[in-house]
Design goal:
The structure holds two protein chains of two kinds.
Chain A: E1 2-7, E2 10-15, H1 22-29, E3 48-51, E4 54-57, E5 70-72, E6 82-83, E7 86-87, H2 93-101, H3 110-123, H4 129-135, H5 147-160, E8 172-173, E9 207-209, H6 229-233, E10 249-255, E11 261-267, H7 269-273, E12 277-281, E13 312-313, E14 319-325, H8 328-337, E15 339-344, H9 351-354, E16 380-388, H10 391-396, E17 400-408, E18 420-425, E19 431-435, H11 440-451, E20 458-461, H12 478-488, E21 492-495, H13 498-503, E22 511-519, E23 525-537, H14 543-554, H15 563-566, E24 570-578, H16 592-610, H17 614-621, H18 651-661, H19 671-674, E25 675-676, E26 679-692, E27 702-709, E28 715-719, H20 728-740, E29 747-750, H21 768-798, E30 808-810, E31 813-815, E32 821-823, H22 824-834, E33 841-847, E34 855-865, E35 871-881, H23 888-907, E36 937-943, H24 965-977, H25 988-996
Parallel strand pairs in A: 1-5, 8-9, 9-36, 10-21, 19-20, 23-24, 28-29, 35-36
Antiparallel strand pairs in A: 1-2, 3-4, 3-5, 6-7, 10-14, 11-13, 11-15, 12-14, 16-24, 17-22, 18-19, 18-21, 22-23, 25-26, 26-34, 27-28, 27-33, 30-31, 31-32, 34-35
Helix pairs in contact in A: 2-5, 11-12, 14-16, 16-24, 20-21, 21-22, 23-24
Chain B: E1 2-4, H1 9-15, E2 20-22, E3 37-40, E4 49-52, E5 55-59, H2 76-85, H3 88-91, H4 96-102, H5 108-115, E6 119-122, E7 129-130, H6 131-137, E8 147-153, E9 157-163, E10 173-179, E11 187-191, E12 198-199, H7 208-218, H8 229-248
Parallel strand pairs in B: 1-3, 2-3
Antiparallel strand pairs in B: 4-5, 5-8, 6-7, 6-8, 9-10, 10-11, 11-12
Helix pairs in contact in B: 2-5, 7-8
Classes of the chains: A alpha+beta, B alpha+beta.
Chain lengths: 997, 249
């Protein structure tokens, strides 16, 4: 049918089928890639367009519905301020504010937010914060925690009203002994979220207790706008899906409807005969290669138990066949034509059943490759037994023994950009894999044998990533497209639906954790023991390493005091079992949030039982600087452990700063504060959890960087490190800029492409700022050395000689001690064109012998309805020691976004299965993630330390924000009303039950 | 799939023999590959809101977001329920009629409309149908039908309460009460479980305990994957008490 409408102000005509979605029409017919696909049910809002000026979701609208209406997309808004000889209008005020305030992380939802904001401001030039939050309520963001987008819109509104806005420069200082509590907001116990005050200040900067770096820093430590912000805010085609290739096929997977079965018979002939189908692959059609989908370093620290396609299915959602067709509708029809006969096998859905004698064996294939203690005959993907010190003696010496079992659920990473990959043969007949991955180099190495290609004939390109959070530390869909490209010779694209993300992707390992702790009367911990039963689902991807970290981090924090501090008694045992549920995998925090749920709930219960002070007790027993990381001598991700000393620990100051910010001492255990006036059924409570994480995997994780100078004195920085929205490209560029004495916009960053960028193990284990950052500094220092040598030569040609070491790089120039200078552009021209020509360029790489832990104190304030069990989280404050903060905007963005994901883990996120192993949650209606208009107040404080193992003193910030919120919220519930919830999330019914028991 | 865009109700009724009514499309668009034809109701002029002599009439094709428009003096608690019905983007497309046809018991808006004793005008039917009855029959009819508008009397007081895992999550348990303008019996609806919210038998103003018990009984088997029957049964009675007290004060 023919439709006519206004598109970005221009009348257009389009011939569409009746069932074409507006989203598809805009992307496929008009090439408007700023409209994103995040789900199919209109819940995420990534596909937002303005329909007659109002934000709507184009994924739940037929193109035909826009006849006679007006559609606006991000492509009509703003442009890069530098258009060469043509003077451009620059970015729109909303876009500019998003760039300045750090409101953009992965940028996948940014066009939607910008459009929603423009719609609001067109009707309401002076919106309240509540109105801004409401305007964003249709756009889910998994990265930011919404503070910065909200502030950006308030700031843009002020700019559009012609008001002055304050510059975003220095952080808000948090002096060590002088911090005033944050101003109180009204309690939000009455459900309707948000305040009503107009905020004209742009409050996006964290508070920082500054550690003064020995050298003055010019770029490191500053809130530089993200290097990719300008393109993302314009919705440029920067993501995997945003390309058009002639003849590209659409791939779909036939998923198993049963939890455990052998495929007795499979016949794809009808599907193959369907017009428009290019290929159908079943297990009979491709080589059988055992591999692991976990994107990890060589050798993979886990069993090889996966096959691209197998004659057995192990969970509802497992792969049965692949289809490539001319379009999605044909591919879906073809799936329905594949005939499969299943011989059903007994399914294991409860991990406790997996180890039972006589349980069904989920991996009985003869080509299963063991790793370490994996034992498929017993459904054991991995097993851990760690004893540090003399645990039994520690229990004997205790005055009290505390034992309890805790539980954490399976949860989804829920990155808004689904898993997606596009594969094609290039002109050299090399297979190109354009994919949304955290691990491009691992993907190439691990896929090579699976595809029957040497690694050198595979090129992996990682464009911008719309969030990963560990979900893309997995080689999950690349093989599907690649097999189909090999089968057809044509480009193939596979993109998961949101439902597939839930039933056929990866998730956080659910665990049941038993704790046993010995404590003396004075509060000294004498021994601490954890046993974790961890459910890896149908495949053992990340099985050993995730659960290993549960102990390695969470059980390392409390070593005991006095003599016990010298020689801690710690036991960590775990069984990681297979079940017939979707596989678990990597998710931000990597086993550590599970551990801290148990440890920090347990500590709180000990505190309450013994009448101790929660902060004093924790700090008395916590690990301190100068001590050996207790697990460093016992375990290192399945590799050889080597002792590691903790160089820096700001935990005590974190507890202090956080408790002052949340006004702990006038709230904790204070009945006068706990009661809510005129609401006898409500109680306020406050809780804390202390946490630690790691920074990279020692002796293993390596990042590389190369830097070269251009004619104009700018630099190309090529890194294998994988920015998935975290801002790592930016903080790496800042480190390069600092060494080279240039502003950050003279650093042109590119990541990542296995053909062009140096190796990097990828974005995981909180490693990039530290590991890849040190690599960048090494490369930059070599480049700086060549620049100094060249500058010395140039100074010598025209005057007194200068020693290269005496030359200082600053303000885009090389300065001699006597005040002469040459610009870096002159240095570049001299070296590239004029004399002793050379390309000034260097490669650096870095591997660390230590993994310096960041530490944090997480506080939560809640209001509990003691009759219904409903919990409203009113405020979260996190004080974090992440070493030196390279960029306060991106770092606080990590903390705010991490706390927000963790808030879901605390109160509402949970993946459950019915008795047939079918997923309860397959969309964002049932699986609720927090939206802008229901957020509690968030506050971030950094307590800087200077980590000596990094050139600028940094430690990690990426994962630690997700560790403490859930236990802090549950501990706050306990403070409010005595409710003692042992299983996360803290749902109304769980609180209600605990209050009745 | 065929797409029709009729300009009159008569034309639409004729086309409905071929396809299903398409309102905002937010629920239907994801199902498009299973449909033969859709009949877009956008141009039928069914998007009027009228408040006259204490009666509110709202066209079935009215977008949910329009219920929040300050130009119309709709009860604040109805607007609150509309706001929690869906996110802004969905409210800008989804219609009242479509919501009534697709909502389950976790819908705040339909719960409140039920408590308001809303009646529904269906094309070709002489008399209005109670919403309560329509919710039972909405998917069972052989022939597609067209909702033209809904109507309810402006209440003396209205209150809505819910329990959810987070403020904007779908309710696990909910209740709404209406004090009628004539001050006689109170109308109460409960939700959170099953295919649709339920009306309790109307209660007298002083019969709080009876209402509590009635609600608890109604939800005595209301267990599903999101909450147990034991929990829902007790909590719904608490919410019923709260909404009744609220509308009485």
């Amino acid at each position: 049918m023919q439709i006519q409408f206004l598109l970005n102000g221009e009348p257009v005509e389009l011939d569409v089928a009746g069932d074409t979605l507006l989203l598809d029409a805009l992307r496929d017919e008009f090439g408007l890639f700023g409209v994103k696909h995040g789900c199919e049910t209109g819940e995420c809002g990534a596909c937002t367009v303005l329909f007659d000026g109002q934000p709507v979701n184009s994924c739940v609208m037929l193109a035909a519905q826009v006849e006679g209406h007006s559609i606006t997309t991000i492509e009509s808004v703003g442009e890069h301020p530098d258009q060469g000889w043509r003077s451009g209008a620059g970015l729109d005020a909303v876009q500019q504010a998003f760039v300045e305030t750090g409101a953009i992380q992965c940028g996948f939802c940014t066009p939607a937010m910008v459009l929603a904001a423009r719609s609001l401001l067109a009707a309401n030039p002076e919106p309240s914060e509540e109105e801004v939050r409401e305007s964003l309520s249709g756009v889910l963001c998994r990265c930011t925690g919404y503070i910065k987008p909200v502030q950006a819109i308030l700031r843009a509104a002020a700019v559009l009203r012609g008001e002055q806005v304050e510059p975003i420069d220095g952080p808000i200082l948090a002096p060590k002994d002088l911090i005033t509590p944050a101003p109180e907001r009204e309690s939000r116990a009455g459900w309707d979220p948000g305040g009503t005050q107009v905020s004209l200040e742009t409050t996006v900067m964290p508070r920082i207790q500054v550690a003064h770096h020995p050298e003055p820093l010019h770029t490191v430590g500053h809130p530089e706008p993200k290097v990719d912000a300008v393109k993302l805010v314009q919705g440029k085609p920067a993501f995997t899906a945003d390309v058009e290739l002639r003849g590209m096929l659409v791939a779909k997977i036939l998923h198993s409807p049963v939890a455990h079965a052998r495929i007795k018979h499979i016949d794809a002939s009808k599907a193959r005969a369907l017009e428009g189908v290019a290929a159908v692959l079943t297990w009979k059609d491709i080589p059988r290669v055992a591999y692991s989908t976990a994107g990890q370093s060589h050798p993979i620290p886990g069993p090889l138990d996966s096959f691209s396609l197998d004659n057995k299915v192990r969970f509802v959602g497992d792969r049965v066949a692949f289809v490539a067709a001319e379009n999605e509708a044909i591919a879906e029809q073809a799936l329905a034509l594949i005939e499969v006969e299943y011989e059903q096998l007994p399914a294991i859905l409860d991990p406790a059943d997996a180890l039972e004698e006589g349980a069904a064996q989920i991996h009985d294939e003869p080509d299963y490759v063991n790793f370490d203690l994996s034992d498929p005959g017993r459904n054991l993907a991995a097993k851990i037994r760690i004893d540090i010190g003399e645990v039994e003696r520690g229990f004997d010496e205790a005055d009290h023994i505390f034992e309890a079992t805790y539980e954490v659920p399976k949860v989804q990473q829920a990155h808004i950009e689904p898993h997606i990959a596009i594969t094609y043969w290039d002109e050299d007949d090399r297979l190109v894999i354009r994919t949304s991955t955290q691990v491009p180099f691992h993907a190439r190495r691990q896929l090579a044998p699976v595809l029957g290609l040497p690694a050198k004939r595979i090129r992996v390109i990682k464009p911008r990533i719309g969030g990963g959070f560990g979900g893309k530390q997995e080689v999950l869909v690349e093989d599907v497209a690649a097999h189909l490209t090999i089968a057809t010779g044509r480009p193939v694209r596979i993109e998961y639906t949101r439902a597939e993300e839930f039933f056929a992707s990866r998730s956080r390992h659910p665990m049941r954790i038993r704790m046993k702790t010995g404590v003396k009367n004075d509060g000294t911990i004498t021994a601490n023991e954890m046993y974790a039963l961890s459910d890896t689902g149908a495949y053992g991807c990340h099985a050993l390493t995730v659960t290993g970290n549960t102990g390695h981090k969470a059980m390392a924090l409390y070593v005991g005091d006095g003599e016990y501090r010298q020689e801690p008694n710690i036991r960590f045992y775990a069984d990681i079992v297979y079940t017939n549920t979707p596989p678990s995998g990597a998710y931000r925090g990597y086993g550590v949030p599970q551990g801290f749920w148990a440890v920090e709930r347990h500590m709180e219960r000990i505190v309450r039982e013994l009448g101790l002070d929660p902060l004093e007790f924790r700090l008395k027993n916590a690990l301190r600087a100068g001590e050996v990381h207790p697990f460093s001598t016992a375990w290192s991700e399945g590799r050889e452990p080597r002792p590691e000393t903790i160089n820096t620990c700001g935990l005590e100051d974190c507890a202090k700063q956080g408790s002052l910010a949340i006004d702990w001492f006038s709230k904790f255990n204070r009945p006068d504060w706990q009661r809510v006036e005129d609401k006898p059924h409500l109680r306020r409570g406050i809780g804390v959890a202390l946490v630690m994480q790691g920074t990279a995997i020692p002796y293993l994780d390596m990042g590389g960087a190369s830097i070269k100078i251009n004619d104009d004195g700018s630099f190309n920085l090529l890194i294998g490190a994988t920015d998935l929205g975290t801002g790592s490209d930016t903080v790496l560029a800042q480190q390069a800029a600092e060494v080279l004495g240039v502003p950050i916009d003279d650093i042109i960053v590119y990541s990542s492409d296995t053909d062009f960028t140096p190796f990097d193990k990828g974005a995981y284990a909180s490693s990039t700022t530290y590991i890849s950052g040190a690599a960048v500094v090494r490369a930059a220092r070599q480049v700086a050395e060549r620049i100094r040598a060249r500058a010395a030569k140039m100074f010598g040609e025209e005057g007194d000689p200068v020693r290269p070491e005496a030359i200082r790089l600053a303000n885009k120039q090389a300065w001699s001690p006597d005040g002469r200078s040459v610009t870096l552009a002159e240095v570049a021209l001299h070296s590239l064109h004029q004399e002793d020509q050379e390309q000034i360029m260097a490669v650096g790489s870095y591997m660390s012998p230590v993994a310096p832990p960041p530490f944090a104190a997480q506080f939560a304030e809640v209001t509990v309805d003691i009759e219904t069990g409903q919990v409203v989280v009113d405020k979260l404050v996190m004080a974090v020691d992440s070493g030196i903060i390279v960029n306060p905007l991106t770092a606080s963005g990590q903390v705010e976004g991490g706390m927000t994901q963790a808030l879901g883990y605390a109160v509402c996120e949970e993946m459950l299965y019915d008795d047939q192993g079918r997923a309860r949650e397959v969309d964002f209606t049932d699986y609720h993630i927090f939206a802008a208009h229901e957020m509690p107040e968030l506050q971030t404080i950094f307590v800087e330390t200077i980590e000596p193992s990094h050139p600028f003193g940094v430690k990690a910030v990426a994962e630690i924000p997700i560790d403490g919120v859930a236990p802090a919220v549950a501990n706050a519930v306990m403070d409010a009303c005595g409710g003692d919830v042992l299983a996360a999330p803290v749902t109304p019914e769980r609180v209600w039950k605990s209050l009745r028991s | 799939m065929k797409y029709y865009r009729p300009e009159t109700i008569e034309e639409a009724l004729e086309l409905l023999s071929e396809g299903v009514p398409l309102a905002g499309g937010t629920a239907l668009a994801p199902e498009r590959r299973t449909l033969e034809a859709v009949v877009d109701l956008d141009r039928l002029g069914l998007d009027q809101i009228e408040i006259q002599s204490g009666t509110v009439r709202i066209g079935a094709a009215t977008r949910i977001q329009r219920l929040l428009d300050p130009d119309f003096e709709l009860p604040a608690q109805l607007r609150r329920a509309a706001r929690f019905e869906a996110s802004l983007n969905l409210r800008n497309m989804a219609t009242l009629g479509g919501t009534i046809m697709t909502a389950n018991a976790r819908s705040p808006l339909v719960l409140v409309l039920l408590a308001l004793q809303t009646s529904v005008s269906i094309s070709g039917e002489a008399s209005e149908v109670p919403l309560d009855k329509l919710l039972d029959n909405r998917m069972t009819g052989e022939t597609p039908f067209l909702i033209e508008r809904i109507a309810f009397a402006l209440p003396g007081a209205l209150h809505y309460e819910y329990v959810a895992r987070s403020p904007a999550d779908r309710p696990l348990v909910s209740a709404a009460a209406v004090a009628p303008a004539d001050g006689k019996k109170y109308s109460i609806a409960i939700g959170g479980y099953g295919e649709r919210p339920r009306l309790l038998d109307p209660v007298a103003g002083d019969a709080v305990e009876a209402a509590r018990q009635q609600a608890a009984r109604r939800y005595s088997d209301a267990g599903d994957v999101f909450a147990s029957a034991e929990y829902r049964s007790e909590v719904v009675s608490i919410l019923v008490e709260r909404v009744l007290e609220e509308v009485q004060s």
